[in-house]
Amino acid sequence: MRLLNRSAGRLSRHRRSRLAGLVLLLIGLLTTGGITYAVMPSSSAGDAQSNAVQVEEGRKLFLQGCSFCHGQNGEGITTINGDNYGPSLVGVGAAAVHFQVETGRMPLVQPGVQGQAKPETYSAEEVEQLAAYVASLGPGPARPDEAEWTTAGLTEEEREAAISRGGQIFLTNCTACHNFNGKGGAMPQGGYAPDLSNTEAVHIYEAMLTGPGQMDSFSNGNLSPEEKRDVIAYLYSLRDQPAYGGFSLGGLGPVSEGMFAWLLGIGGLVGFAVWIAAHTTRTKKKKVEA
Amino acid sequence: MAIDTSKVATSNSSAATPAKPGRAGAVATWADERLGLAGMAKKNLRKVFPDHWSFMLGEIALWSFVVLLLSGVFLTLWFTPSMSEIHYEGSYDQMRGIAMSEAMASTLGISFDVRGGLLMRQMHHWAAMLFIASMMIHLLRVFFTGAHRKPRELNWVIGSLLLLLGTLEGFTGYSLPDDLLSGTGVRAADGFMKSIPVVGSYMSFFLFGGEFPGDSIIPRLYIIHVLLIPGLLLALIAAHMLLLVYHKHTQWPGPGRTEENVVGFPMLPVYAAKAGGFFFIVFGVTALMGGLMQINPIWLYGPYDPSKVTAGSQPDWYMGWPDGALRIMPGWETHLFGNFTIAWNVFLPIIVLPGLMFTILMLLPFLEAWITGDKREHHLLQRPRNAPTRTALMVALMTFYGLLWMAGGNDIIAIKLNSSINTITYMLRFLVFVGPIIAFVITRRWCISLQRHDNEKLLHGYETGIIMRSPEGGYSEKHLPINPSAAYVLSARERDEVYTVEQETDENGIPAPASRAKALRAKLSTLWFADNVQAPTAAEIEAAHHHADHEHELQAALDGHAADGHQFDGHHSVEGDPLRGSDQH
């Protein structure tokens, strides 16, 4: 499995521990397994009924937390100027709900250029319920399954090919906004493409699928599920590789490099010049002592 | 007059005879008899240089250039300047099998497969950043202290050319790996050339050997980078240093320092040790930066492909200011005759502006000399405050540069300070015009008030913090004279000489030749020196001190009623004279 098979020789202390991925995976499996077990109906006859219960619970949550902007039936609200107060959620699918709510972007703290990522407000169970309700409003992309982005089934060679292919897809489609390192970039009017260094695989997948905010949506006809998997594999390979060449200085390119050249380089060398000039010749010092 | 011979040794019974020359001496004699170096060495090894930290800024540039030569030679051993397409099969996993130019593949090879290659690449790049940065701070030091005045104007021009060539050398260097970032830069440079009316497209086709990108730009940039510009740089650095030796170094005014001498330490052994040591420090700092701080991670950018681009596509810092001008320029275009476009939005900020700014830079010493009418030689430096208009002019230029620099990083500023890139851009469009003017006015007034403060200190002494109470109940702060060497530094400056037109018309009423230019010059000269505070004359200082003595005499009569603490007024010894009541603690 890929998460266990990390390349050796990590240099940066700022990366997560070797075991973090494994622990996270275990927690994720236990949580999802536990929840599934807890809500899993005992018979298939109960399946439809349980879905109806989920939608109903989700509707209650929606009316309380979301309808103020998105409308009581998720139809969206238009201001008197014709602007979107909250967009319609008909047809956005469960994937969009998962992405927006799990990354904390929804519910919004305040209206603005774009939703800010923050600690999530709803529990995993509540997110499921909200997603079930929104999915019931119209057909849309469902939440992707881990099988769709894992490279666990591939051989070593296939995985390497997938990563280098993913890198090319990333450089072609994503770096224009997210930067070559996935560290993010500026968008018009105060918007920004977020830093992807800590985004979970499932959220990267869902973002490509649903195109949140100013991002394009990369439907499966546009970028196939395998290609989405490759992009995720490339981004994870960047996290796994050691920081070649030393501190990455923010990974933002020549602007931060220039700042360090001036502050550390020139600052330090001028400091040394002051130091050298302050130490005059030895003979004079002895005279003072005598 | 009798000579005191008591200190002369009496034990020398025979005349001194030269010892048998040692091995080193024999080698030196052998070489001198064939090369005749002793005469030159004798003169120059004892050449005196004045001591000040700010005189070592140009040295940073010199030593980082040496680091560039050393690391650059290393890189040429493995770099392949070719645009032939191959598939990368090196040890960087994420790029394996990707089609790229040989230039990019060999740069990846240097980074991952050549022992010490990445360190050398990063040292080379950091040294380049430091090379140009140190040339700029050296330039600022020279201008702020007036070291560009006669006879050093031509050395200023050589220095400016070094700055221009260094920038071009940097640009050609970071374009060589043919990665996504540098390819974007070369594409931009192609666009800049094409924005030049009429000849632009011909120039672009000439440089690229056809339409962009072609397959000759990398080999051409390579030979410019490793042969043409380094050769010119070396020649100009040699000329710069020869002129430095010929003119002799400038020095700060001080006791015993005049326009005719240089006070300091000789080249051997003092400056050879200091400068040699500084080389190792520069080398060490560059090595530390190259070893610890990632620069230009081409493996993340990947090979250049015109269909790709990355956020944060900026040039290296020294090209940042024209990039900033380009970023904040409104999108103006003119269409002539239906099919001929003049792209003002590119042509003005990136072709006209840098050319204009560079011309202004080169002309600065000549402009100042013309305005002030100063034809004298200057070897003593001026403190920046004593040339308020000159200082303010450079600060205005620096502000203009800094604001454009900021504009060049507008996207990074936007994401790091959570602000809108549009707001930053609109603000900077306004600030690049207003900011330099504000900076000029503030700096000039600041300098003049510092001059006033200096005169206060010279005439009335420094503020002691001792508050005196007069019999009438008024309070005043006591001033004490500053020490003589500080007073020397403050007073050792020339009085400004405003240029005046001697005679506008001759005795027959015929206007003197070029009188209009002279009148303009007189007006500019008046403005240049307007409001400057002149150093006080000896008579003024004398009068001020006399006045102070008189005050002290008046106070002396009141000694019996002095308030507690008055004993510390500096007029008499305070030994064994504690504050009243201090023994109770």
UniProtKB/TrEMBL annotation, chain A:
Membrane topology classification: Multi-pass membrane protein
Domain of life: Bacteria
GO terms, molecular function: heme binding; iron ion binding; quinol-cytochrome-c reductase activity
Entry binding sites for heme c 1: 66, 69-70
Top-level EC class: translocase
Transmembrane segments: 259-278
InterPro entries: bc1_cytC-su (IPR009152), Cyt_c-like_dom (IPR009056), Cyt_c-like_dom_sf (IPR036909), Cytochrome_c_Oxidase_Subunit (IPR050597)
UniProt subcellular location: Cell membrane
Single GO cellular component term: plasma membrane
Entry's EC annotation: 7.1.1.8
SUPFAM superfamilies, per the entry: Cytochrome c (SSF46626)
Binding-site residues for heme c 2, renumbered to this chain: 174, 177-178
Subunit structure: The cytochrome bc1 complex is composed of a cytochrome b (QcrB), the Rieske iron-sulfur protein (QcrA) and a diheme cytochrome c (QcrC) subunit.
Name the UniProt record assigns to this protein: Cytochrome bc1 complex cytochrome c subunit
Organism: Nocardioides lianchengensis
From TrEMBL, chain B:
Segments crossing the lipid bilayer: 53-79, 126-144, 156-176, 222-246, 277-299, 342-367, 387-406, 426-443
Membrane topology summary: Multi-pass membrane protein
Keyword Electron transport recorded: yes
Catalytic activity: a quinol + 2 Fe(III)-[cytochrome c](out) = a quinone + 2 Fe(II)-[cytochrome c](out) + 2 H(+)(out)
Compositional bias of kind Polar residues: 7-16
Species of the source: Nocardioides lianchengensis
GO CC terms in record: plasma membrane
Domain Cytochrome b/b6 C-terminal region profile, first and last residues per copy: 254-449
GO molecular function: metal ion binding; oxidoreductase activity; quinol-cytochrome-c reductase activity
Region (Disordered): 1-21, 563-585
All residue ranges annotated as the Cytochrome b/b6 N-terminal region profile domain in the record: 27-253
Compartments reported by the entry: Cell membrane
Keywords in alphabetical order: Cell membrane, Electron transport, Heme, Iron, Membrane, Metal-binding, Respiratory chain, Translocase, Transmembrane, Transmembrane helix, Transport
Listed EC numbers: 7.1.1.8
Keyword Membrane included in the entry's annotation: yes
InterPro entries membership: Cyt_b/b6_C, Cyt_b/b6_N, Cytb/b6-like_sf, Di-haem_cyt_TM
Official protein name in the record: Cytochrome bc1 complex cytochrome b subunit
Biological process terms in GO annotation: respiratory electron transport chain
Cofactor(s) named in the record: heme
